[in-house]
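Loading example: each entry is read as two labelled lines plus one structure line.
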Amino acid sequence: MNGASIVQKHQNLEPVHLGQKDIPLVELPIGTIKPQFKISNLKVSYGAKEVLHGVDLDVFANVVTALIGPSGCGKSTFLRSLNRMTEVVRGTQVEGEILLDNENVFRMDVVKLRRRVGMVFQRPNPFPKSIFDNVAYGLRINGHHDSLSEAVEHSLRRAALWDEVKGQLHKSAYALSGGQQQRLCIARALAVNPEVLLLDEPCSALDPITTAKIEELLFQLKSSCTIVIVTHNMQQAARASDFTAFLLDGQLVEYQSTRKLFTTPSDPRTEAYITGRFG
Amino acid sequence: MERHFEHDLGDLKERLLMMAGLAERAVHQSVQAVFEKDENLANRVLEEEPAINEMQIEIDDRVMQLLALQAPMAVDLRFVLCASRINSDLERIGDQAVNIAQSALRILRHPQVKPYVDLPRMSELAEGMVRESLNALVHGDADLAKSVLLRDDEVDHLRDQIFRELLTYMMENSAVVFPAFELILITKNLERIGDHATNIAEDVIYMVAGRDVRHLAADRR
């Protein structure tokens, strides 16, 4: 929160429609943020089983958006649809439209899409290479061979890892702790300057101190990168995100500013979920 | 890496102190309006009160956001809880200042009942309690907060003394009943301001030391 009066901020808020017609309105300061992703009627099926039943949602640029919901509600599927990672699962069918800066992702070259929309997974998955080579990997395969050291340092700094590893860049990435490995994966994703970073439960294997570091990192990164995070941990969504979407049984129930969703949710199902009455 | 949560806590404290500054000034101006028979000063207190009320809402909002989104623990939790309580006390102090300013405006229409001797002492004491309780908050100083608690009895003693004196004036001369009654109301408001400062000091002790000293006898605090 900056020094401006919250009361003053409230006065500047007007309701804007963010998602499905039948879900509650979100209060947003008009003109301050723009949608990066526009998702319309997204349906995803694995074989005969439909797991997302037509989700409409705008993901805003340079904010952290959290996806919450009980296991199996479709939040990871939704996240993976954004950079077409769902396609790696055999038998997956995707319907609907996903626009990234008004460009249909299904008509884009998937490699280019994933360069623009990076991803970090639940368990840190560094390559069996040195710390330096892990970060430089994406740059090399994209044909960048000049100023690699500067680029690696820049990415490690953005991932708040540089100070911890600067003296051991050529050691194996496996020598790092779990939290450091996860930040290395973030640095690796950041190296190719993605516009969006998708994180699928990035802290579920980490201790609270390391989790706090990653959350703080998200806060720092959002000025240069749009962030979408799936988390089981509602407190993490509350702490780290600006907007939160609550999914239930493959449908978007509520999409609000995080402060509103966690203090005065509009839908009784959201209220029941965040107060631990189901899920 | 400093957590932005800590910035939010710092901002909350800063806003609380800003509100405290407004409340403190309101009290000072309201009693000065009585002593200096200054109608403008009294009116200024009435005009500035909405700013205090607005800050109360803003601080409440910040407290709710911090509790809901950051789930603070230990000293952070105690601070956020105390900020919420102190917020209410400051708003009430602002209300007492408005009451005094309104009494000042009514008293102006009447000749002065008696020279003001104990009332300035009482207002200085109550204002000092507010100031020191907030200094204790700024510095996290439980000893300073404890010294504020000890002064509440002096304020109560002065209240009783002023009540007794004004009653004798009223019994002697019914023409002074109205202004004397207003002075009694002012005295009562100053006593309440002292009580709010006491509440703030108790909160500071809880925040710093984790000890709840409310409703304890003076020697056990």
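Residues 34-274 of chain A form a domain with the Rossmann fold fold (CATH 3.40.50.300).
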